[in-house]
Amino acid sequence: MHSFYTIKYENKKVSMINQLLLPREEVYESYTTYEEVSDAIADMVIRGAPAIGIAAAYGMAIAFINKQDSISNLLYFEKVKKRLAGTRPTAVNLFWAIDRMERVFKEISDSSLQVISEKLLNQAHKIYEEDVKICQAIGENGAKLIKDGSTILTHCNAGALATGAWGTALGIIRSAAKTKKIKVYSCETRPYLQGARLTVWELMKDGIDTTLITDSMASHFISKGKIDAIIVGADRVAANGDAANKIGTLGHAISANYYKVPMYFAVPNSTIDTKTPTGKEIPIEERHSREITHINDCQITPDNVKVLNPAFDVTPNELISAIITEDKAYFKPFKFFPHDYKQ
């Protein structure tokens, strides 16, 4: 698989690779409380929609495994749920995982603390294990759309670091690279530089031919015929196929549409939110201005500059060539309803 792991549970602790320190340092942090896990999600120690869902599930499990609070289990669960749900509003996998854990809890809420802890931990393990298999299936389904000799553009990080393992967009790239000769252009992905820091690090570890470009260079290379396909992940896909992904994705989709380059979104079924009709209803997270005014501890802007920092944009469905899930590649028109996939 990989020489690193994104998240795992061991000895009443949740351990995660600290993605804020990559690629300079490969450091693993351990957490024993749901508050610590919540902070890790909010601060982007762990990020990527599927990985956030896994982290939230383990956070709820260790909340009961290491419970010190004297309030009732029912009130305590609501307290834990509220804290974790308040971390990242756009990534629907967070709420999907919390809902799954809540369904388990409701069935056993009158049980002993030990039983609750065991059942919640088992469910968190299940969510993690399912994600690994799902990403591998997404990879195989998406690889069928990639021609030998292709150069693929990707934005942000939708790899093993954003999931339990393997990745969604990078899962397709990894699967394709097993039998085909491919190259990858990775956008740096300002302001958090997930492409420069994380995607390039992952792909270089796998020995995949990877070139780093700035976000503003993408349209240039697309226009020159250097890009054969664009593959990205998503944090939420609406019922009509509109997809929210890291800020900058929409610009790539517009360029791809103009120059007739296929634009693929790779997501697990759990990222498809059938309760959200269109992209207009997807909440967009606004992050701290410091992410733009500073690179690490170095300020790069004038003092007191006005800043807008939306973390995501929404690509309308008409600009999307296919949405690739663990079941299959969906093509236009996109109309996702609960019966289209397993909940």
Describe this structure in words.
The protein has 343 residues and is α/β, with parallel strands linked by helices. 37% of the residues lie in helices and 17% in strands. It has helices at 34-42, 49-65, 73-85, 92-108, 113-143, 169-177, 194-205, 218-223, 249-258, 290-293; strands at residues 7-10, 13-17, 28-31, 151-154, 183-187, 210-213, 229-232, 236-238, 243-246, 263-266, 272-273, 294-295, 298-299, 312-315, 322-324, 329-331. The longest helix is centred in the middle third of the chain and has 31 residues, at 113-143.
What is the secondary structure topology, with strand pairs?
Elements: E1 7-10, E2 13-17, E3 28-31, H1 34-42, H2 49-65, H3 73-85, H4 92-108, H5 113-143, E4 151-154, H6 169-177, E5 183-187, H7 194-205, E6 210-213, H8 218-223, E7 229-232, E8 236-238, E9 243-246, H9 249-258, E10 263-266, E11 272-273, H10 290-293, E12 294-295, E13 298-299, E14 312-315, E15 322-324, E16 329-331
Parallel strand pairs: 4-5, 4-7, 5-6, 7-10, 8-11, 10-15
Antiparallel strand pairs: 1-2, 2-3, 8-9, 9-14, 12-13, 15-16
